[in-house]
Fold:
Amino acid sequence: MEKGEVEKMDPVTHGLIGMMLGIMGGGTLSLTNSVMTASIVGSILPDLDIVFQMRGDYAYLKQHRGFSHSLPCAVLASGVITFFLGFIYPGEQFSTLFWGSLLGFLSHLFLDLLNSYGVKILWPFSRKKYTWNLLPLFDPILVLLCVISLFFLRKGVNEYSLLAVIFFYLLLRRMMRFWAKSIVRARLQRKNELVRVNILPSGISLFQWDFIAVLPGKNIVGTINLCHRKYQIFQHLYQEGDEFKGLLAKTILGQVFHEFTPFCHINYEKKGGKLVCHFIDLRYRVRDRFLHNGVLVLDQNLEVEEAIFQPYSKSHGIYLTQ
Structure:
């Protein structure tokens, strides 16, 4: 798994959806179709926040799917796209290009909302990342449906029936997710008082899902295979008491993880009079390890002595300062 693979949905899917919506708006599969061009550009533009990667992993992860993936940006960016496309399609109405761009941009936000990384869609009114945990970052079935839809659109098939097929697939995934959640809940409730079960897409399989089960005193992370109705536990992560919970949340690393992931596990231990805290993003795993981690060291006065963000690998440490 390369850097960035767990942050953004593949541009092919976004572009195909934008192309579909553009053709549905009128015209043919051609660059002379101004609505299609506007929709494609709008559907890809939000991921231009990859330019923050030039400033390093921390800057990129902090900014990705922030302002560029918000509703206010959708309106602003659509206006910019329309302005420039006006030079390429001088005879086209402003409103036509604007609505094509906006539709493509919103399709990008919708798709990103469906996977586990989330989007700050309500920025600046809320810094929370919203996610529906429904799609993997690359879904071959969705790509195939888009390609088939483009073929039938050229044949004159009703576009609403094609959209209905795609939404039926999303509904099917939602049903599979609910099924996975009910199985995990039933299995774990036999021995424990279950608090909450979170189901996340795992890889590209429709029948395999990851889960994060929150129980009193611990989190259980694992994978369930719906074909065999069996689950495999990846790790038991025991939680400490709430003694330092409020304090850790106010530290720079605590704020980073709070904004970065809705599924954060924190454990700590005392070493030589210092409090060493380990932060883990539970969403993404590579083989036998979690992808994103962090280490916070507090001195005897519980002041931050060291804060290290470890994106992609524990060997890759970024030292944070207030």
